[in-house]
Amino acid sequence: MKQTILARRYAKALFMVGKEKGVFSQYNETLRTLKDVYQAVPDIAVALANPMYPLDLREKLMDGITASLQVDKPLGNFLRLVVQKKRAAIIPDIAEEFAALVDAENNVCQGHVVSAIALNDDTLKKVRETLAKLTGKDVQLTTSIDTSIIGGIIAKVGDLVLDGSIRTQIAGLKDSIKGRE
What we know:
Blueprint lengths: L3 H18 L2 H17 L1 H8 L5 H15 L3 H12 L6 H15 L2 E8 L5 H15 L2 E8 L7 E5 L2 E4 L2 H15 L1
Parallel strand pairs: 1-2
Antiparallel strand pairs: 1-3, 3-4
């Protein structure tokens, strides 16, 4: 279960420290790596979050992880505090919230494009430019293929959804015809 509000508080606190020191991008990369470690080795997340293990063992495990990632002292202390406060399970959520803060600071937003077929680079560039004009931010896109949309694309950036799929157009036409009956 995501604990977005709590994760956002921790992320904001760390972001303020990272911004003050000018290393928030570095912190973002470290948190992303730690999130990847949590996903790749779920036993680490369990060990860090399990209250059945003594706190000093959990702290030593986090110290070992931070040493292997070569993090600076403030980030290491932050991660140790998260373990002490029994919040180690939300580190991936903190990483996501922190990444959102970094994106906002850099005037970047994340977008996703769904298409029926793979899009070429020129088309992706045009979509990115159009979304950048609409949002006023630099848009970083991820893509996926869903053949059920028949054709066209569906672009999502934050709360903005632009649905130009053939499936939606057919559904609209169907509703229009039903309305006339």
